[in-house]
User: What shape does this take?
Amino acid sequence: MADRAAVQQSGRPLAVCLMQAVAVATATVVPVFLTGALAVQLSTDLAFPLASLGLAPAAFFGAAAVCSPIAGYLTERIGPGRSMRIAVCTVTTVLVVTAVVAHSLPVLLVLLAVAGAGNALAQPSTNLFLAQRVPWQRQGVAYGVKQSAIPTAGLLAGLAVPALGLTVGWRWAFAAMAVPAVLVAWGTPAAGPTPRVAAADRRRNGDAGRPVLVVMAFAAGLASASGSALGIFLVSGRSSRGGARRRPGCCSPEPPRWVSPRGCGRVFGPTVAAATTSALSC
Assistant: This one.
């Protein structure tokens, strides 16, 4: 217990560690959501049909799936802090390079695959980062908060469309997203390598076996696929039906009606109240 407590105490408040993990997880998944939000502009500029948009998440998440086992080993080898920084720097580079040299669909897919590899490294590193710093009684809340990174990335990608994509162009939207990513990489702690665990200590009472992990991974994949597909294909789907031109509220070619002080209060007020109540009750 003393060793575990020593591992959990990192010298930083738990809230700061949690925000760092959420920021890293958000930054590393932004490219695929930004591609989906800017699908109309990308398809026009790069001259590919909207039906080919499915290749973008396939390249991103496919590369992430292939690289995940290696990413997990690397995280344990060099530590979660360094892994998080490498992951964010990889995605930041992809955002900048996409804004500069992405002139065709194949190039875009290659860049998204590289970003997917960065995301693969971010997931185990942020999980291990929280496991070492959050007491086990609070880890459920911590991992739940960390999962807010995915909808947060979708929100940022959606806001980038009316703010940048429709005003100065989609390339500036990618370049602008690299700025907060740089700040996230700069604020990520570069901790030392994770202490290696002896083979006899790796399996403890209550640890899940490989069959259970396979089932959990399959279930998590199905669960994340629904939310990710909604965020990635919403704009292109409505645009193909003409909805983005008629009712652009949720698809971002024009600011929706609720983007006003009163409208934002009506939409986000109950959400903030519920989140605050949930956080205080934990």
